[in-house]
Structures are given as C-alpha cells and as structure tokens.
Amino acid sequence: MATRRCLGGLIGLTVLLSACQPERAPTDSDPTPTSEMTDPEPTAPPGFALEPISFADVPGWEKTNPGPAISAFARTCEKWAALPGDEPISARAGYGGRIEDWMPACRILPQYQEAGELRRFFEDYFAPFIISTEEETNKLTGYYEPEIPGSREQTPEFSEPIPARPDDLIEVDLGLFDEALSPRKIWGKVDGSQLTLYPERSDIETTSDHAIGYATPADVFFMQIQGSGRVRFGEDDVIRAAFDAHNHRPFGSLANHLLEAGEISRAEAGMSGLRAWIDRVGPERAREAMNINSRFVWFREIEVTDPSEGPAGAAGLPLTAMGSLAVDLNHHPLGVPMIVRSLIPSAPGRVDNAPSNLLLVSQDTGGAITGIRRGDIFFGTGDGAGAIAGSMNQPGEFVVLLPQGLERAPAGAAP
Fold first, then answer.
1. Does pTM top 0.85 for this prediction?
2. How far is CA 236 from CA 159, 164, 406, in A?
3. I want to staple 66 with a disulfide (CB 3.0 to 4.6 A). Which of 89, 97, 118, 414 is the partner?
4. What is the pLDDT of residues 223-272, one digit of tens each?
5. 362 near 338, Cβ under 8 Å?
C-alpha cells in the first residue's frame, strides 16, 4: 500500500517569489550523446529515497497532458525491444531495474494509444515515487534546438565557421580500458606521449576545410551552448548540426560575466538582451566576452528527415518537445517517465502564477545537469521554443514512475 504523501509545499513558496525571477540566461545544456549500461540490482542510488505515493497524491494529475511523454516513451520502448531483456537500463542508477521489467508496459502501450487512454496507461502499469533528498540543488531549466540562418560559403554577414571536429582531436572510448566506464568518451589532444586537454575557446581557430558552413558569431556561440541546432542554408537546404565532441573545458556564463562587469542589467540577462549587447558592442569586443566560456563544441552534419523531431539526446533517440527531460545520469536512468511539478512559463518572460505538471521521459543529459533534483526540459525547435526555454528557471518536485513490478524495490531505500 502506497504511503500517502502530498506534493506542493515547496511550490507554494515559489509562487510568492516568481515575480522576482529574472529571465534565465542561457545555460550549458549540451546534450552530449551517451548511451547507458547498467547495474543488475534495482536499488535507489545513494543520496535520495524514492517514497511511494499514489497518483491521487499528485495535484493536478487529472489535468496533466500525457501526449508528448507517450511519444517519447514509445521511442524508448522501440529501442529496448531490440536489446536483451536481462540487460539493466542503467549502470550508474540501478533503481530502474532491467529491460524485461519495462516490456509488459511497452507491449501494451499501442492498445492504450489506439483507445486514447493515455493517462490511464500510466495509472495501470506504473507506480509513482516522490524523490526525497536533503541535497540542496533543486532546479528546472529549459533548453531547445536553435534554427539559425547560414551560408555554405563565408560571407560578411555569415562570417563564423560552424566547427566540425578537427583532425588533431582524439576520441577515447573509456570502456576499452574499464567496462564500468562504457560507453563514456573523452576528447583531447596528444602532446608527446600524453593525452592532454584540448585548448580553450580563445585559442581555437576553425579552418574552412573543417567548417560545416557559416553563420553569425552570436548564432554559432549560442548553438554551442545548446549543443546542437538546425542551420537553414536556403529554402530547401536545412541541416542539423549535431553534437560531436567538446574540449572538456569548464563552462563560463556570458550573462553572469556581463552582469558582474556592469555591462547589462538583470532584465537584459536573457537571450534577447545578450544578443542586443553583442550587436551593440561589435564583433571584437563580443568575441572577447564570449571567451569567458572556455567550453568549445564541435558538430557533425546530419540530414533532417523529419522536421517534427528534435535532435538525438543521450539515449540516441530524437527528443520530443515538452516530452523529454535531461537529467544527471549518475542518479537517474535514461528512459524513465517522471512528473515534474513547477511554475512553468507560458510565454517568454512570463511564468505561470500557479504550479502545473509536466509528464516527461529522461532521454538526455548535459554538462550543467548535476544533482538529484536537477532537470532540463526540452522545449522544442526554433526561436519561439528558445524564448520560453530561456524563461524556465524554477525549483520543482520530481515524481518517478516505475513499473508496478518494481514498486517494492526503491520504497525501502535509505537516502
């Protein structure tokens, strides 16, 4: 029998504070492609407990839109169906169990889709668990896939190369040295007999033979922060610049740097304000400021076969707008449905006065996504999605949905 526990104590306070929240500056949410191997025992990771509740304990559950999460979860099911059933779904976060634990729900899903009983699908096959932890980090942000104009050839307007991986960047598959680290990868540069860090952003120059195309310096910079994007070279020539590698240097916030320097106000710390500052000060000064972010991302060109699909996330699956969530893979498996309850922006710079729910599936991760209650919501593609994503910066409550057969596994886990 599930222990009764209601959500909402934290959210009530944030309603009072929401008017003071500034528009969020872009964050380092690069969706580094990774796939997961996993531990065999379904036990909750250290640092938090999964406490059983009922769907009736989730305020507003009956109004929660399950559609995007259903689409995202169906893609996860397709991937799992091709893998051995006894394979665990995560090597680092064992509470998700094995693939075979999820397949009964996966196999029955099409029947619920045909009947239009999407919310009931989760009620019939899943058990909800609220995350309980003393860890202070609690933040939900948003990210998106930019779509930027560009050119196949360098022009005065489109002067910045969209960087492809350079020849001297070495990729290391850590799983070749320790199976427990598979399939994690690192990138660096050979210096004598050692592999060292690749240079910082300020010391990297992209040559024309390693450019996917060209765009404005600001567009390339912000696309590197998001980790991928679409580039429109012409009406019938749209490609995806997908994440390929990064230099492992620390992320530095341009917005915070300009705020501390007194260059912008808090009201200008969002994407539109940063772009206005870049246009105002000119390319040389803007580039100097951008170098505060030493992290540098390289891309590979991919054909856009379905414009409705987002870029591939860490699970190797297309992300679903308002249905995919980036999480810390040290704590959470990929492919797990979660309810997040928070103050969700309904328009750029406008946060709802009352908390609401999003039903999401963990399908991605990112360099700044660290913590048990740390999530990054994928808002979609284009400027509209980006403007709303930039306004998402709130604490929230996290409810994990696990197959009912796993209900007892996490319930007794100690934080």
1. no
2. 21, 22, 48
3. 118
4. 999 889 999 998 889 999 999 999 999 999 999 999 999 999 988 888 78
5. yes
